[in-house]
Specification:
The chain is mainly α and 699 residues long. It folds into three domains: 169 residues; 139 residues, no CATH class; 198 residues, no CATH class. Helices cover 61% and strands 1% of the residues. The chain contains 33 helices and two strands. It has a two-stranded parallel ribbon. Helix 9 runs parallel beside helix 11, helix 13 crosses helix 14 and helix 29 crosses helix 30. The longest helix has 29 residues. The chain is elongated, with a radius of gyration of 33 Å. The chain starts with a helix and ends with a helix.
Amino acid sequence: MTSLQGVLGRLLSIIRSGWTRLSEVFRGPVHAVVNSEAQPLGQDLDVLAENNNILNLDLPDIPTSDLEAPSVKWLLETSTDPEVFLAAARLVPQVEWPLDVDVSDMLHQLFDILRSCVDIQGYIIPSLKEKASACAMALIHLYYGCVLQAYPDDGDFIVHGRPDFDVLLDIFPGMYTADRTVCSTTMNFCQPDGNTWHISWSEVCPDSVPEWLSHVLPYHFVTGRVNEDIENLAIKVMSKLLSSPSPSSLSDQILANCIILACVMVGAQVDKKAIVRIDKSSALPLLSESLLVQFQKALWAWDGGELDNDRTGVVRRTWKLLDIICRIVELARYSYRPLFHTMRNLDVCKKIYSRARSSEQNDASALLAALRNALHFTLAAASISRDPAQVWNRLFGEALSYSPEDIDWIVDYFDFIYYDDHEAAYDVLLLLGSMGVCCSPAKQHLFIERLIACMDSNMPLHLRHAALRAAHSAQEQIASIDAIDDARLRDTVLTKLSPAILSVLCPHPVTTPTNDDLNLFSNYDRDLCYLELVCALARNPDWHPHLSGDCHIDRCISMIPRYCNSESPTQHAFYIACILLQIIPEQTSITTLDSVAKQQWRDVMRSAWDDPPYTINNACCFKPLLVLVDGTKKYMQIASKSDLDQLIRNVDEFVETLERNMQEEMGLEIQDSEQVEGIIIAAKELRTAASKMLERFGR
């Protein structure tokens, strides 16, 4: 008796928590999938390859004592309280049902109760609608597990001696909308001879319907019970779930369901025990990586060719899923490691582009759509986010082996689509900006012209930002204007690109920003990207008249109050100082630029040493560092005693860090090593000069 009371107490606890957890879902006929905290999990991709595409999710076993299924089963079979029975039935899709739990009696019982809710004409009695929905949902949920457990064998699971399809066909006509969707999907699961039963899908179905379908649709693909309607339904379900206005509201559990559904659709094999688990969120990293690997294989296999030889249908199905897979990997980008096959993926994109340009108009349109998604996938696989807020992220870690000519086709594609397809142009600019790739001299003029066009004030803001980021990536080529043989290109770069760059920051320089567009004028990461670019341009005297005449210097000076503040050190101050010092290198007067007050100069020179770049792997920083050292020597006379004291401490820290980095870095190029040593020597000389000047303050 005590044991029975304990079980009943636990059941009531389950039901109470279920009522709280499912209060919203109880208003509809189908339950949502429970979310739980995801536990990080990783597995080397090499292991996946060795497993011959069998995806082991390595989900932890649930202790028998923690299983709620036996308690819910007992309650359904014994309870005489209608409310308790209804609550228990609604809990069925919410709890784990291991394959070794015998639910055959439950199926018979639930079907009998469901039949009792139907009138003589075969329609659900309105007053019993909730009970019928709960029983139908529980019956179908358990039925999927029975079929999977018996696979590859078949059987009559609901009513002995009657085909399951016929049993469901009896109750289907009287069901309401959401239940009809669930039932018609299941009828395709048990349809004899692989025939198709029309799936009743309605956009007004509650969210709980596609959420539950995302859990059971993999059963179809694992058992091979798939037809075109099921494929299309899977795509609809994932599209609906992944198209939430607020991506952050998408639970890890639902995202994991979508990924495992996409995985089995593109050929991954998954263990039965993993398929039936309600909570697969702990396997999210592994699922994401598996989807990337599987799709990448299909990308390489197809590369825009014909699908007639695709006997399994996996490649064809993959390309139907292309847009969804891109959405999945974007949402799951923090759950997987990037795949370093970017150049091979780009080779495939190049083949698709080549076929698109040589195809008839209809074929070209379809191939260009595929290319857009293939390029989108290439970005996602390399962990390059399309989020406009992430456009300023630095170069990613893949070491690329390519020649400039390998990139020329991307410039041609950019030219082909930039005006009509802003999203595809955005992807191209993200790729060029994030990878640091440059085209051959033959395509430079075209690239610069299209870059300028994308910076135009009529273009979307995120596209203009991506164009600025791409210009930053190509800063060495743009700065070396004297090395460009094409006089027309030199003129374009100097006269058109220069004002276009500034227009990205100040679309209308004469206007005062409102609260709504302050981000256009004071974006931290954007401004740093801009200053790094202008600093590179300032190294070449040919650029100086244009940087002054096109108001870049005025823009830099306007940033002094924001970024040259010792209370909030930023690297912006370093670049502002280097820009101004390079524009007037031959001047020694502190009043050379009338618009820069003495106090502003003090702020600039003091703040520039608060956060200088310490990298010894980026030769682009060597010249600015020497410029800052030499410039500081010139303008130390305007420094206060406290400024000198702080300068000495900052220079000491700078030298110590560079020397430590030199010792830790192996394989540094001899030329780079010599330049770093030269910077260290110059900084030590500056420190000595500052110390002597500080001593004079004490006299």
